[in-house]
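[#protein-structures] MJ: dropping Molybdenum transport system permease here for a structure pass
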Amino acid sequence: MNFIMRGRLWSFGFRSTIMLYFILLVVLPIIGVYSQSLKLGWSPFWESVTDQLAWEAVLLTIKLALISTVINVLLGTMIGWVLIRYRFPGRRLLNSLVDLPFALPTAVGGLMILLLLGPNSFVGGLADKLGFEIVFHEPAIIVAMIFVTFPFVIRGVQPLLEELDKSEEEASYTLGASKARTFMQVIFPSMLPGIISGAMLAFSRALAEFGAVVLVAGNIPGKTLIASVYIFGEIESDNAQGAAAVSVLLLTLSFLILGAVNLVQARRQGK
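AK: finished. structure tokens for Molybdenum transport system permease:
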């Protein structure tokens, strides 16, 4: 009996500790952001959200995040396919490097992009000769977003390809279907949930990226000033309420995306 009571107490204490940790680390900061944004009332919040600079920064961030997500979907699906379906020298090393953006400080990633694509680099010099610039313009921001969100689609697709029943693929070939038709009607539907969830997570992550982007983005409103850099500027200008208001927009959008990801995963598990 004492053993059972001790087990229940230990389980209750463990769960309570986890919940307390979650509340302190996640829930309270989120409540703090929403509270700060509405601290001065609804009117100042609405003025901050509808400010032209803020609105242009948010729209630009969404646009560039969508572009980076589309590129990530295409590249990530192909890379995930190659890593699962083919065996070649260096495959394990390449597979481990996929997670490098998760382990590498994002500021270091931004510095790498700056050194590789800056005006003093070979690529940057070649682009300058062709009449366009990369760093401190939209292309560099897109590259930075792609870098930090690179693993999501790949890691979303790989387990689905590993779980795919090859007998279905072989049956399609036996019935006379071409490789392209087999891929579109048998393989791709199985990969689609991973592609969708990975794309949504990549988009959400790109919306909030700061460390890699701030080194390669400019501050030209409507052209290179994205939401995270705008929020940083508002904090430096001692306008915490304005920064919180724009943060609430991004945070709410991230919550909606997270809910969509959970819905996709729930439907997949339901099948």
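MJ: nice. The mean pLDDT is 82.
AK: one more thing. Residues 1-38 form one domain.
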